[in-house]
Design a protein that fits this description.
Distance between the termini: 40 Å
Structural class: mainly beta
Number of helices: 1
Strand order of the largest sheet: 1-3-6-8-7
Largest sheet: 5 strands, mixed, barrel
C-alpha cells in the first residue's frame, strides 16, 4: 500500500527539470508549508515552524511543470509519500519526499488560464504515460493541460 498525501505550500526553490537516462522527463523542487495561529496574548498571528518536502514529478507532469511552475508559487501537490533516512559526513537525518501524481495552482492566491498541450499525455519521447507499477495512467485524458498564471489585477483570457 502506498501512502497518499496532499500538501498546500509555496515552491521554495527554482524547479529543476532534467531527462533521466531512460529519456523520461523529471522535475524536482522543494515545497515549504508554514502555519499561522492566532495568539490571544499577543493579539496577533504567530508563524510556526515550516515543513519542507522534496517534490519529484515525472513524464508529462514534469514537462508541464517545467513550463508552468516557478519559485514562490503557491501550489497543491498530491502524491505518494516517501520517508527516507540518510547519513553523510555532516550527520544523520530524515528526508521527506512526495512523488507527485498531480500539481495545481492554489487559486485562493492567484488566477490561472489553462491551455491544452499538443502532446496529449505523452512523455518527451512520445510514449504514453505510465505509473511506477506499469499500469496505464488513467488520469491522463485525451488532452493534457498547461496552467499559466495571470498576474493579479489582470483579466484572465478565455482559452476557448
Amino acid at each position: 500500500m502506498k501512502d497518499q498525501i496532499a500538501v498546500v505550500g509555496n515552491i521554495a526553490t527554482d524547479p529543476t527539470s532534467s531527462t533521466l537516462p531512460s529519456g523520461t522527463a523529471a522535475l524536482s523542487f522543494r515545497l515549504a508549508t508554514n502555519h499561522r495561529r492566532f495568539d490571544r496574548e499577543k493579539d496577533a498571528y504567530v508563524e510556526e515552524a515550516a515543513n519542507f518536502y522534496s517534490v519529484s514529478a515525472y513524464r508529462s507532469l514534469a514537462a508541464n511543470g517545467a513550463l508552468s511552475l516557478a519559485k514562490g508559487m503557491r501550489v497543491v501537490v498530491f502524491g505518494r509519500l516517501r520517508v527516507r533516512s540518510w547519513e553523510n559526513d555532516r550527520g544523520k537525518g530524515t528526508g521527506i519526499e512526495i512523488i507527485a501524481d498531480a500539481i495545481g495552482i492554489d487559486l485562493q492566491f492567484a488566477t490561472a488560464s489553462v491551455s491544452r498541450n499538443s502532446f496529449a499525455g505523452s512523455d518527451s519521447r512520445g510514449q504514453r504515460d505510465t505509473r511506477d507499477d506499469g499500469a496505464a495512467d488513467e488520469a491522463s485524458s485525451d488532452a493534457a493541460w498547461e496552467v499559466v498564471t495571470v498576474p493579479e489585477g489582470e483579466p484572465a483570457a478565455t482559452p476557448f
